[in-house]
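Team,

Forwarding the record for the chain on the shared tracking sheet. I've put the sequence and predicted structure together so nobody has to dig through attachments.
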Amino acid sequence: MGESIAMFSKPKGNRYEDELAAILAVILIVPSVGAWAAWWLAERFSEASPVPDNPITMGKLFIDGDSDWPPQAWFWLAVLASPVLIVFFAFVWRVSGSRLDRLASRLPTQGLRRYQKGKGPIIGRTVGVSPTRTLRMTTEDQSVIVAGPRTGKTTTQAIPAVLNHKGSIVVTSNKRDIYDAVVEPKSEDGRVWLFDPQNIAPTNQAQRWWWNPLSVVTDISEARALAGIWSDSSKDLNAKTDSYFDPASKELLTGLILAASIEGVEVSKIYEWLIDPKNTEPADILNETSEYGLAGRSVKEFQDLPDKQRSGVYGGALKTMGWVTDPSIRQWCENSSNDLTHFDIAEFVESTDTLISLSREGETSATALVTALTAAVLTEAETLAAHQSDGRLEVPLLGVLDEAANVCRWQQLPDLYSHYGSRGIILMSIFQSWAQIQSAYGNQGAEKLWSAANVRVYGGGVSDTTFLKRISELCGDYDQRQDSVSSNHHAVTKSRSLKKQATLDVSMLGALPPKRAVVLLSAATPTVVKLKPYWKQKTLMQRFKGFTNPQIQGAK
């Protein structure tokens, strides 16, 4: 009967063992050959003593103590030894790196040249391949970044993208770190507009500007779009929708937004109309126009609903507009004192200014206003691009939507993602998990957003095995060699087989090391990149000379 003695697995081709054997052979042979060659060069170029006939003869002379080693040979020995030492230490560095970096060397490197030549935001520097390459987005790319909390996605992705971009920039976040990092250097490129209704980044300066969200409403389609943004932003990510009351409340709000825009009143007027369902003013305003009579009739029909039904419709719209009751938020969209500058979106899109919009999460936050402002800027950029000869912005606009699911929940974003690439609008949407994308945009919207992105980055910190398996499958497999030895009473049998193994399995992806990311690129093979925080990027450090950024000062 046969008895299994051993079974073990090795990478195909005995990869690192073969390389180590070659290095050891070089270590044994090169010193003697190198010393002889150095002596020969010294004799040839420096009139040193005659070199022995061969390395073996030279070795015997050294052993016997009869060598006449010329001092000039030390120079030539250093020259000859330098390349060998470089190769040796490069190998030591390679095999001593993280297991992820070694596995990354199994990933093919096809199609990366396009991203080596990109002029958009930096993605990262490849690892596991030689030579390493810095990959950048192109000006036609859109990216989706998924990374858990405290994985450095803001410092390694969002902030460097803002600092490197030369055109107009729109940023969203729920934290002040982006503003603190970029406000000084970006002020040299243009004006930094901070939209901070909830005082997340106190600046000890009085408010200097405001933005009227009704200024972008010129027809009923734009009123409906704004109503949709406000309605979606006011709901909890996991809230259930009602098939009648939610659409009805949104349609009522559409009519009131349109009436307020026509009349030229402030946003708070919409809330006043909602708390007084019997007020016929909005319906009368719409009915006085030739094209919006049906909209006026719709508002009137909502007013004439039975009490309970009407309360449900108006109550939903009131909940949507709840942020208006907060005076600290309302002052950013109403200029009651007439002493503030109004934010000109069209002028901003053609500038080199930076707009940073901050909001906390939750139903009573400024998310509705932040989302509306962000959507208005991107829509204006799209309109401007459409009027250019090539249909693109001459200088691309960059949108960095950090915490997009929480503070910029724009439902049209998945549909627009691929379209913006042809308009010179570069978007980076940052999320904490796949589930967060699904909660914000639904399963279909999440798939659409993911598929439309040219650059998909996974930065670690996620435990969703379904999502991680998806990444693993896209990274492909490699052939792992399995050797086995078995014996019986008469003979020993050796066998070898190949087994498919995931290049980056789920457990590896779930425990992704810090400052590493897996990148899935359009028309290119997956790759692993090294990420650097902005204060360690040499090209950016120059921008911080003389500035007081606390992160930079701490790094120094």
